[in-house]
TrEMBL record:
Entries under InterPro entries matching the protein: AcuA, Acyl_CoA_acyltransferase, GNAT_dom
Official protein name in the record: Acetoin utilization protein
Pfam families named in the record: Acetyltransf_1
Residue spans crossing the bilayer: none
Domain of life: Bacteria
Domain N-acetyltransferase, chain residue ranges per copy: 23-170
GO molecular function, a single term: acyltransferase activity, transferring groups other than amino-acyl groups
Gene Ontology biological-process entries: acetoin catabolic process
């Protein structure tokens, strides 16, 4: 399968200086950058930096970053779902997970999350795949944001809707474990019907919704 990648770059003026949103970045470019100390939602910054390089090395992997000079202040990742997760059960070559979105606290007022995600979808790069993301409230930074769980959920939905991802139903136990959790999906215009039907079977494990 063809993994379409079209490098995008955008300059963003901010009170903290000029920022650059760009990607998908090749691993050699990522290795030259360093992580902001606040980017620790999933791993320690150094470990997360190594994980970003590993994702960029994957044929399907893509990493979009927001940076200040050589400092990564935000990133978005795309890759195949983990083999231990339900979403890999269909062994679909055209099902890609939007895995993580993180922006350092001081840089959250500049729309970087939306800019990074839009860069990933620019120029039809992801029209031949189904992109999904699972939003779990326990990953959300409720303390720093000052938002309650429903306000944060609304913010994440708005972010995903900026690239036409929409809410999809599922019986996945983790998604269903809390009403604020959700599955968001975008089906590219070049995705065959057979893949859409296979994804439906993964979402419900063969059960029918009426």
């Amino acid at each position: 399968m063809e993994h379409r990648k079209s490098f995008q770059t955008e300059s963003v003026r901010s009170p903290l200086g000029e920022l650059v949103v760009e990607g998908p970045l090749p691993p050699e470019m990522l290795r030259e950058l360093e992580m902001h100390a606040d980017l620790d939602a999933f791993r320690r910054p150094k470990e997360q930096h190594a994980a970003l390089v590993e994702i960029a090395e994957l044929p399907e992997g893509r990493v979009i970053v927001a940076r200040s000079g050589t400092m990564i202040v935000g990133y978005v990742t795309f890759h195949y779902p983990d083999e231990l997760e339900r979403w890999s059960e269909g062994q679909m070559v055209d099902l890609i997970e939007l895995g993580a979105v993180e922006v350092a606290n001081a840089y959250r007022a500049f729309g970087l999350g939306k800019r990074m995600i839009r860069a990933a979808f620019a120029e039809g790069q992801l029209e031949n795949v189904i992109v999904f993301t699972t939003e779990y409230y326990w990953h959300w930074d409720l303390d720093s944001s000052g938002l309650n769980v429903w306000e944060y959920r609304a913010m994440m939905e708005k972010l995903m809707k900026s690239v036409d991802m929409i809410w999809y139903a599922t019986d996945d136990p983790e998604v269903c474990s809390h009403p604020a959790n959700c599955l968001m999906v975008r089906i590219g215009k070049d995705v065959p019907l057979a893949s859409v039907e296979q994804f439906d079977r993964v979402r419900f494990r063969g059960r029918f919704m009426y």
